[in-house]
Predict the structure.
Amino acid sequence: MVGTVLTDPACAPLVADCGIASMLIGMLKDKQEDDEIVLQIIFVWNKLLYYKSTRDVVLSEPQAVSYLLDLMHDQNTEIRKVCNSALDIVAECDMTWANEIRKKNFEFHNSSWIEVRCCCRCSDIFARLFLFLLL
């Protein structure tokens, strides 16, 4: 229901001023296993981020953006869509978060390559150490 109220630009600042961002973080912690609740919470954050007048309410809550980063590759398609929409707005408005978002996307899409490189590097180090110990 709050997400629907936020579709009216005149209502958005009123909702934002009531401390909803921190309340939603508490709800998300309590109900993180309920996809529908999670979807509704990130939908509200998305709406708050949409309006310039209310954007800072979400951006001033580091946990809100951190949760969005955690959910950006969720198994639920709808959660991913709304989450990525919200993160697109965050990236446009805050360069620090934009870099973090790009980093998380890179790590996710290249995780196999990163894992292989890490394992190869570790194997190479162990091989050199083994040869050193033999000599």
